Amino acid sequence: MNPKEEEAKNVEDETAIQNSSDIPEFLVNLNQAPLYLSEAQVKEISPSALAYLGDAIYELYVRMFFLWPKQRPEIYHRLVVAQVRAETQALHLRSLTPHLRSYELDMIRRGRNAATGRPKRLNPEIYQQATGLETLVGYLYLTDYPRLQELLQKLHLEK
Q1: Which of 14, 23, 67, 127 is the most buried (most CB within 10 A)?
Q2: pLDDT digits over 31-46, tens only?
Q3: Distance CA 61, CA 52 (A)
Q4: Of 13, 22, 55, 144, which one is the catalytic site residue?
Q5: Active site residue 144
Q6: Can you give the pTM of this predicted structure?
């Protein structure tokens, strides 16, 4: 395929994606499963490190969710910041709690207990809940990616 044909195909592919009415399915398929670590390797990772990873994964998911419909960068930023705030993460954790398994609840507890150094504007409980959610996201990203996808799709992200 010559460069012009390849460019035309890329534009066609992007148009098909933008016109898709099934954006959440596209988001799920775009995120390829990460390299899996053994359970022993994951147990060696601290809850704080899992929360650090989970924070990045959670924000990436939210950023991708808000790509459609097209917006100006300032609007993307405002929408994403509203969803990745600790207060909103704590609300999302509460909405997910009925769907969680016992080992997931345990991972959240470990993350909450590891939460330190909160911003002064935040209630410590809110910060702990947000850190618990991030810890769970980091843990599932490394151990059970399909389960992470399932839980992220249950979030009620507001546009």
Answers
A1: 127
A2: 455 566 778 888 899 9
A3: 15
A4: 55
A5: no
A6: 0.75
